[in-house]
Amino acid sequence: MQLDTPNYLLSTPTARMKTPAAISLSIKPFPGWYCFLILMLLGGCHSAPPPPRYTIGFSQCTTADAWRQAMLAGMHKELSFYPNVRFRLKDAHDDSRRQQQQIQEFLREGIDLLIVSANEAEPITPIVEEVFNRGIPVVILDRRTTSRLYTAYVGGNNQEVGQTAGRYVGNLLRGRGQVLEVLGAPGASPALDRHQGFAQGLAAYPGVRLTAQVHGDWKRPSVMDNLPAVLREHPEIDLIFAHNDRMALGAYQVCKRLGLDQRIRVVGVDGLPGNQGGIQFVQDGVLTATLLYPPGGEEAIRTAMKILRHQSYDKENTLGTMVIDSTNVLTMKLQTEKLTSQQQDIQRQQELLQRQRATYASQQTVLYSLAAALLGVAVLGLLAFRAFRANRRSNHRLGEQNREIISQRNQLQEFSERAKVETEAKLRFFTNFSHELRTPLTLILGPVEEMLTAGPDLPAAHRHDLSLVRRNAQRLLQLVNQLMDFRKIDVGKMPVRATEGNLVAFVREIMDVFEKPARQRGITLRFLPAEPVIRLWFDVNILDKVFFNLLSNALKFTPEHGQITVSLQLEPGGQAVRVSVEDTGRGISDEDRAHIFEWFYQGQQAGARGSGMGLALALGLTRLHLGQLSFSSRPGQGSTFVVTLPLELPAALRQLEPTAAAYPALAVEEGFMPPAPTDPAAGAGAAEALVLVIEDNPDVNAFINQKLRPHFQVSTAFDGATGLRLAAESIPDLIVCDVMLPELSGLEVVAQLKGDWRTSHIPVVLLTARDAPEQQVEGVQAGADLYLTKPFNPTFLLESLRTLLANRDKLREHFRRELSLDTATVAPQRVDQKFLADLTAIVEANLTRSDLTVEDVARSLGISRVQLYRKVKAILGTGVTDFIQGIRLTKARQLLLNEDQTIAEVAYQLGFSSPSYFSTSFKARYQVSPSEFRALHTTPSP
């Protein structure tokens, strides 16, 4: 297909113009002398030379799909700013041979610049090189050729699109799931690049597996024909990634036809605006997300005009991409609708301008007719002058409006960047706020717990006051935890780990916690399960917070002698269960109803008010659990909150291992703490153990020092650098380190300790207020042996240190067994083993020296005698001298098997001062003399 765009459709646009009356030229009769005077005045004027005219040829592989049509529309929109450009389009209809012929036609017709979007790279490359070699600029659009002989490239990075999709899918599936990929045409470079990038993006998520692939040939019918069989073969698929939105729409229709649209999410590529575009599909819930892949029509024309005008330009113009999902689809749609509206205004202004020009043309005809009778040349000059002024004013207004559009676009970008900065600042605030609160809570709860548990003679009044302090400190800790849960939900870092259990028993246990406070206020608690056992998959930790907040809210707003009723029943159809919490409080006012689930909203009614987080947290956690939370209320008669949960959850949210039982939320306020594990053998020798405490908070440092000093030797440091220095000098048996340290963080301290063979064997316990699972994983990956969150139980910390010491004793025995007769040196698989290998090598290299000392060995290793002694003692439980003696005697067993050497020669070769000393040492070690050992292990000659 060949399309010649008329110049009058490509004339300069911009925003709004005046009405036709503001620009039209009216014809009035002129006296003959006036026309003659005008003719004389304008006779010497010269018009400005017209701008140069250019012809741009565009060889398009196809215009049959919406994305290519959007590319062409973008070109026309940009060309409207250049009325001096003739634009010619040839459509190859996905035929490479036809595209070659059409480019040859462009060469014969004569063009100033060629834009090519190749159907296939290799067949089109030779003709593109021929055009380039003839001196005609070539702009490659979207699909590259196999040659570098072109003037400029404009298009997206398909590999980056695939990588962005892979990372988004990994985060969306929370690191676990099965993915099906719908590829474009086989062999097409965009399909290959997007697949390669997608695989690279998924590589960061080992739990997400690319299970199957379907070739869709970029078209929806191919997907609808081929996909059903693959989905039946792989029912475990959680998400489908399609290489464009048309194939993604086909995948959604297949899933809907098979009843899988509620479980399988679909992600596409293109992100086009309009009713049939990817942005609308995301807003309608048809697609979970789409990745913006700009058509690049406007950018191609801008680059072409820079080349034709001999302005500076970039040879490689890679267009960016972004993910459009439920979080930003409304903004994107508003922006595209705004741009569409502005483009429509521009088109209307173009039509208005054409009508004005048509009016001007008709008036010009009349003026030519009058000029024959009444000095027509003068009238025509006057009209040309007035038209020039009108056009200049119009161009000036259009230029101002164009600058206004650019300014608005820059403001949108600035608002977007500012929103990102504010979001990041909010997350940092919550993290730091939690850390700052957990540290003083450690210093409050630790001593209070010890006084309550270790003071049997505590007066009743003091015990009551201390219990009040503990209860309110734990309440403050609960608020901090709610803030952290809010942050996790906000950034999508709250995982669901569901196990199968009895919901009736679970809710009953939570209600038991509220029995005592309800009885004290005369409130009746009623529990009405429709069935004795209702089994479903649920996350214990998440639903515990949901039901606790609902019951706590009901208890708070129910007056004395009121009633709270909790009922459980299956939904009709047996696919979900409803848990309702009904109270007889004062209800919710009309002005509060619309805001009841908003974060930090406390209501307008007088009376008891909470933190404004409980109901919002309950709603967020319920939705995270794929459930619903609703309420009904009548002022003065009470409120009812209903939690609806599905009986089944997707496999990605389940875990086979049972979750550790979560303690009821109010149990913490009642002072219940899980018993710390004890090991009678763990404390053996603990009093001689040296513990290094690295903590920048003086109060926490002193508190830990006070609790450990009766059981260990303790040294302290207030920053990471000092802690590393003391660890290298004193070689402690244990290190307790805070994560948030000035300059050098606790994670960096652990990494340096584990990387230094002098301190690599030392167990490290990290203390921190950062309790997110990914943060704990980060601490363990750095090499920490134990990760405790503040506030911590001092008894639990003490028993943990004793357990680590006991484990270190077992590791010593392992190293001792590794130094056997058959293992002269230890394989350096770990840092400690490498140290033993280096130490053994030094001793073996100096076995003949009878004057070999511990100082000599330490000097060879580059450390002090004390450091060497503590290192060997910590790993092997023996002294350096005993280690050297053991190496010599082990070597002696090997040499005694050789009858060519006498026992005296063996003794001197191994550095013993005399044969008698060698015999005494050998017998003390192996209970036989050297001669007896040789007789037992050698065969006499015949």
From TrEMBL:
<dbReference type="Pfam" id="PF13407">
    <property type="entry name" value="Peripla_BP_4"/>
</dbReference>
<dbReference type="Pfam" id="PF12833">
    <property type="entry name" value="HTH_18"/>
</dbReference>
<feature type="modified residue" description="4-aspartylphosphate">
    <location>
        <position position="738"/>
    </location>
</feature>
<dbReference type="InterPro" id="IPR011006">
    <property type="entry name" value="CheY-like_superfamily"/>
</dbReference>
<keyword id="KW-0812">Transmembrane</keyword>
<keyword id="KW-0808">Transferase</keyword>
<dbReference type="InterPro" id="IPR004358">
    <property type="entry name" value="Sig_transdc_His_kin-like_C"/>
</dbReference>
<dbReference type="Pfam" id="PF02518">
    <property type="entry name" value="HATPase_c"/>
</dbReference>
<dbReference type="GO" id="GO:0003700">
    <property type="term" value="F:DNA-binding transcription factor activity"/>
</dbReference>
<dbReference type="InterPro" id="IPR036097">
    <property type="entry name" value="HisK_dim/P_sf"/>
</dbReference>
<dbReference type="Pfam" id="PF00512">
    <property type="entry name" value="HisKA"/>
</dbReference>
<dbReference type="InterPro" id="IPR025997">
    <property type="entry name" value="SBP_2_dom"/>
</dbReference>
<feature type="domain" description="Histidine kinase">
    <location>
        <begin position="432"/>
        <end position="649"/>
    </location>
</feature>
<dbReference type="InterPro" id="IPR001789">
    <property type="entry name" value="Sig_transdc_resp-reg_receiver"/>
</dbReference>
<keyword id="KW-1133">Transmembrane helix</keyword>
<dbReference type="InterPro" id="IPR005467">
    <property type="entry name" value="His_kinase_dom"/>
</dbReference>
<dbReference type="InterPro" id="IPR009057">
    <property type="entry name" value="Homeodomain-like_sf"/>
</dbReference>
<dbReference type="GO" id="GO:0043565">
    <property type="term" value="F:sequence-specific DNA binding"/>
</dbReference>
<dbReference type="InterPro" id="IPR036890">
    <property type="entry name" value="HATPase_C_sf"/>
</dbReference>
<keyword id="KW-0805">Transcription regulation</keyword>
<feature type="domain" description="HTH araC/xylS-type">
    <location>
        <begin position="837"/>
        <end position="936"/>
    </location>
</feature>
<keyword id="KW-0238">DNA-binding</keyword>
<keyword id="KW-0418">Kinase</keyword>
<dbReference type="InterPro" id="IPR028082">
    <property type="entry name" value="Peripla_BP_I"/>
</dbReference>
<keyword id="KW-0597">Phosphoprotein</keyword>
<feature type="transmembrane region" description="Helical">
    <location>
        <begin position="366"/>
        <end position="388"/>
    </location>
</feature>
<dbReference type="GO" id="GO:0000155">
    <property type="term" value="F:phosphorelay sensor kinase activity"/>
</dbReference>
<keyword id="KW-0472">Membrane</keyword>
<feature type="domain" description="Response regulatory">
    <location>
        <begin position="690"/>
        <end position="805"/>
    </location>
</feature>
<protein>
    <recommendedName>
        <fullName>histidine kinase</fullName>
        <ecNumber>2.7.13.3</ecNumber>
    </recommendedName>
</protein>
<keyword id="KW-0804">Transcription</keyword>
<dbReference type="InterPro" id="IPR003594">
    <property type="entry name" value="HATPase_dom"/>
</dbReference>
<dbReference type="InterPro" id="IPR018060">
    <property type="entry name" value="HTH_AraC"/>
</dbReference>
<dbReference type="InterPro" id="IPR018062">
    <property type="entry name" value="HTH_AraC-typ_CS"/>
</dbReference>
<dbReference type="Pfam" id="PF00072">
    <property type="entry name" value="Response_reg"/>
</dbReference>
<dbReference type="InterPro" id="IPR003661">
    <property type="entry name" value="HisK_dim/P_dom"/>
</dbReference>
